[in-house]
TrEMBL record:
UniProt name for this protein: Acyl-CoA dehydrogenase
Domain Acyl-CoA dehydrogenase/oxidase N-terminal: 6-118
Keyword Oxidoreductase: yes
Sequence ranges assigned to domain Acyl-CoA oxidase/dehydrogenase middle in this UniProt record: 122-217
SUPFAM superfamilies: Acyl-CoA dehydrogenase C-terminal domain-like, Acyl-CoA dehydrogenase NM domain-like
Record-linked InterPro entries: Acyl-CoA_DH_CS (IPR006089), Acyl-CoA_Oxase/DH_mid-dom (IPR006091), Acyl-CoA_Oxase/DH_mid-dom_sf (IPR046373), AcylCo_DH-like_C (IPR036250), AcylCo_DH/oxidase_C (IPR009075), AcylCoA_DH/ox_N (IPR013786), AcylCoA_DH/ox_N_sf (IPR037069), AcylCoA_DH/oxidase_NM_dom_sf (IPR009100)
Cofactor: FAD
Protein family according to the UniProt entry: Belongs to the acyl-CoA dehydrogenase family.
Residue ranges of every copy of the Acyl-CoA dehydrogenase/oxidase C-terminal domain listed in the record: 229-377
UniProt source species: Streptomyces chryseus
Keyword Protein biosynthesis tagged: no
């Protein structure tokens, strides 16, 4: 791939960088402590076009390619992963999936609101009893006239209590395994749908993570996204691109760790000189820097493959696997550079580490990414 950014890509990255430095990073600690980012940030993201990247202009999007999307995601993740996650889900998992699979009517109904930030989307796949094995989900949608009646529950849903619409996965036929799963676009104010925020998360505390309970929720048949029984394909296609977005967010975390650690190492003095003079501190910084570059290059490769219409699923798993583990390592190394100050939240490393940790868990754990890569290498599905 051509590693030189176009003028447009450079400009959008600068826009996101300035926005992140001005509107996100200065508030990240306070939002983390308050367990909520300021909701006004969503409309500001929409106004700048960051919620419409890769979405066609006719639906309120601003076009652009996946590399630009990665650049913006990295900058948002550098400022605060909680904000990055709101975008990765509302745009990355919901709007982009809707733009790909939706009918004209569904796109016109939801995309302008999602891309402007007037509306927020969430992605309802995981259930209390089914996480990695998402194809075994048990939420049930039973046909009743021109509608489906849905019963079940969803767990760990990012944006859950904020969202206006949930891209919901439910079993609608008796076909075995994932073949019976369909996708639905369900307004969150539909009677019978209740939401409970999950508190006490290790990281991403500024983000609203929720449990959704569905009791006799009536969803019109016209709200089904993609043909009946194709829901799992919808979910997997969303997650494949989603993994690139998570990887880009991880690059942002690792970059933030590097910036903070270098700055601190060149100011803090021990043994009569700044700690940057100590070789073992330089080793910590070097390890972070190599992780940042390697994670970024793997992530950009996925974007490039998508933009050129090439297969990218295995590469997305590689990027997500490496970048998430690298972000944890980088934040942990940065914490070491900060010494005892790294352990309190007035300094950035601890939050970066807490925020990074979930990246190895969601949108497929590191083990699941290894099984995806292993299947591509051997032809054997070892799930
Ligand atoms: P399990 O699947 O029970 O896994 C437990 C352990 O077993 C893990 O280590 C796993 O790697 C391992 N394991 C499982 N199967 C295998 C196997 N075959 N081989 C080897 N090891 C295996 N979900 C959504 O649908 N929407 C969201 O917006 C969303 N946001 C989230 C936000 C947060 C903060 C968190 C924590 C989770 C979120 N999730 C969301 C859910 C997330 O995707 C799941 O937690 C994740 O897929 C893992 O599922 P699980 O927690 O049930 O773990």
């Amino acid at each position: 791939m051509n590693l030189e950014l176009s003028e447009e890509q450079t400009a959008v990255r600068q826009l996101a960088r300035d926005f992140s430095d001005r509107e996100i990073a200065p508030h990240a600690v306070a939002w983390d402590r308050a367990e909520s980012v300021d909701r006004a940030i969503v409309k500001k993201l929409g106004a700048l076009g960051f919620l419409g990247l890769t979405i066609p202009e006719e639906y309120g999007g601003c076009g652009g390619d996946h590399l630009a999307y990665c650049l913006v995601t990295e900058e948002l993740g550098r400022g605060d992963s909680a904000v990055r996650g709101i975008v990765s889900v509302s745009l990355g998992l919901v709007a982009k999936t809707l733009a790909h699979w939706g009918t004209e009517e569904q796109k016109r109904q939801w995309l302008p609101g999602l891309t402007s930030g007037e509306l927020v989307g969430c992605f309802g796949l995981t259930e209390p009893g089914t996480g990695s094995d998402a194809g075994s989900l048990t939420t049930r949608a039973v046909r009743d006239g021109d509608a489906y009646v849905v019963n079940g529950s969803k767990m760990f849903i990012t944006n859950g209590t904020w969202a206006d619409v949930v891209l919901l996965f439910a079993r609608s036929t008796d076909a075995p395994g994932h073949k019976g799963v369909s996708a639905f676009l369900v307004p969150t104010d539909t009677p019978g749908l209740t939401r409970r925020e999950i508190h006490g998360k290790l990281g991403l505390r500024g983000q609203a993570t929720a449990e959704l309970v569905l009791e006799d929720v009536r969803v019109p048949a016209s709200a089904m996204l993609a043909p009946e029984g194709k829901g799992f394909s919808v979910a997997m296609s969303a997650l494949a691109k989603g993994r690139m977005s998570v990887a880009a967010g991880c690059v942002g975390i690792a970059q933030a760790a590097l910036d903070a650690a270098v700055e601190y190492a060149t100011e803090r003095e021990q043994f009569g000189k700044t700690i940057a003079h100590h070789q073992l501190v330089q080793e910590l910084l070097t390890d972070i820097a190599v992780d940042v570059d390697a994670a970024r290059l793997l992530t950009w490769r996925v974007a490039d493959l998508i933009d050129r219409g090439q297969p990218f699923v295995t590469e997305a798993s590689k990027a997500k696997l490496f970048a998430s583990e690298a972000a944890v390592r980088a934040a942990n190394n940065a914490l070491q550079v900060f010494g005892g100050y790294g352990y309190i939240d007035e300094y950035p490393a601890g939050k970066l580490l807490r925020d990074a940790r979930v990246m190895t868990l969601y949108e497929g754990t590191s083990q699941i990414q290894k099984l995806v890569i292993g299947r591509a290498l051997t032809g054997v599905s070892a799930f």
